[in-house]
Amino acid sequence: MNFKKRCLIFVTFFGSCLAIALLAASLGTKYWVQATCYRNSTQESRIKSNGTVHFGLFEGTKVLNVGLGDRETEFLMLDVLYAERDLVMYELYMATVATVCGGILFGIIAAMMAIINTASNPTEQICHIPGLYTFNGIALFSTLAAIVTWMVQFYLVLTHNVLTYQDRQQKWVSSGLAIFGSSFWMVVIAGVVFVINIIIISIANNDPTKFRHAKQMHTIPGKQHGDTMLY
Question: What ranges do the domains of the chain cover?
């Protein structure tokens, strides 16, 4: 493996580390969805009241103001889902958590494979270029699955409501006021990084000398037409 090829593969190590950091940050932050809300009881209270809600996969914050000042409340998603399963679609929620974790796991393996291929020339296919393709591809697939599951969650449920039953009883409404948060976009960027990794691996694996050699062999008349003469 030549020096240029090793350098290109080593670049994918940094790409994998960046993608892992983005996915880990998306797990730890609480901005997968953000929404504003208001109290829909009377016209006067609607004007005076305002609030914001944002949450991630594990934690969230809501700030509600009925005209007497902000009332901030921190909450854990698992506690909320235990008491109220219809706030989100539970299966999609768990699928998002699992696929983000899967992206991190296979991103770590892809980073390790990049180090191995930079430092040595392994003979096993799973540790060589095919392994780089495989683990970056699986990490990309897991990341895309997380994006898709959360988008489905968002459009089916969260665009209509991000508030608990207790808040809805007090006439708080968030329908049509939700947007994707920064934590979600971190996952999107991580997916783009894995795509770039795969492109770099493809460039590194493209050996022009082999192509030129094959082309030269193809243009030799004796090889092309089987006209080899024996003396």
Answer: 3-30+84-206
Nearest to 105, CA basis, from 66, 57, 141, 69: 141
Q: What is the CATH number of domain 3-30+84-206?
A: 1.20.120
Find the DSSP H helices in the chain.
3-28, 43-48, 77-83, 90-119, 129-153, 165-169, 182-205, 208-219, 221-225
User: What pTM, to 2 d.p., does this model score?
Assistant: 0.84
Tens of pLDDT along the chain (231 residues) come to 587 888 889 999 999 999 999 999 999 999 999 999 988 866 655 566 789 999 999 999 999 987 777 888 899 998 988 888 888 999 999 999 999 999 999 999 999 999 988 887 766 767 778 889 999 999 999 999 999 999 999 999 999 999 988 888 888 899 999 999 999 999 999 999 999 999 999 998 886 555 454 455 555 555 454 454 444
